[in-house]
Amino acid sequence: MMKKVSGLIFLLTLLLVSLSIEAKETKAVMTKIYSYEKAIKPNLEKMLLKRNLTYPLSDLYIRIFKHESELEVWGKNKDSKEFILIKTYKAHNLPYNDIDTTKKDLIKNILSIPIKREISEGEIGPKDRIGDSKVPEGYYHVLYHNPWSSFHLSLALGYPNPADAVRGYNIKRINKKGKENILNWWSKNIKIIRNECISGAPSIWYDKLAKPLGNQIFIHGSFVTIGCIPIGDKMIEEVFVLTNPEYVGGTRVDIFPCKYTKINIGKLKKIGEGHPELIKFWLNLKTGYDHFEKTKNIPDVWVDLKTGEYKYKKGSQENLFKI
Fold this sequence. Notes:
By secondary structure, this protein is α+β, with helices and mostly antiparallel strands. The protein has helices at 2-21, 27-49, 103-110, 162-170, 176-195, 233-242, 245-248, 262-271, 276-295; strands spanning 59-65, 70-76, 84-90, 138-146, 154-157, 218-220, 229-230, 252-256, 302-304, 310-311, 320-322. The strands form 2 sheets. It has an 8-stranded mixed beta sheet, with helices on both faces. A hairpin with a 5-residue loop joins strand 9 (302-304) and strand 10.
């Protein structure tokens, strides 16, 4: 009898542990976040005060523009009606990865000297496979904080998301089971991720059927990367602290190929000639970009689980997943 009870207690313990793995960041991680906060809090308070905001914030939003190599951080207090731009960070070596970046360009990136180049097909487009060295494009969340990163500090992003999974299946990058595994993982964890961060690498990253799409996309320190977003060691400390889930909950991170100016839209259409699905994808993202530009509030986004297309109004359509 005692053996059965002990076995039951053991199984219940394992269940509780497994439930907590994808639920909340560990005390050790939170201690690290507060340790960095202590060192830079006065600077953050001054920075926010200049924008009529107080620290800590109650909500945070990040936008990344690949062509411009910029990472924007926007914030709100509880009484704010709109998000306010806090700071624009230089995304070093983005999107020109090691495979196509000259040493001269790399030095310019480290020194934050703008690199004048035209938008080209090689630098943009959504990530859709492991090893393509591309930064994803779409709507994501910060999954967890890593204070022990090889790149000083890092924030893990939720790639692949449900849209990536459906598009990956539709282009036969992953099979049906791989798509279902990704969708099931998000279905179980999306409410948690919207409101806090999970404790370390998600189990879906270790799924062999999902692996062909790639994973482990981070915002991190340092100046170099292959497929991630490096903003330098000092800068990542600010973003690391500002995304504290105990203050701001979950953090949305939206990644765009470029800023949708008239000139850039023309260039996107030009390099997308012969690839109507690519132009459609970029224009689909533009809807969310336009919403924020107009309202300064984060757009609600759903994924069409048949096409992988982003939707901005739920309506009566079925098979939609809210990001």
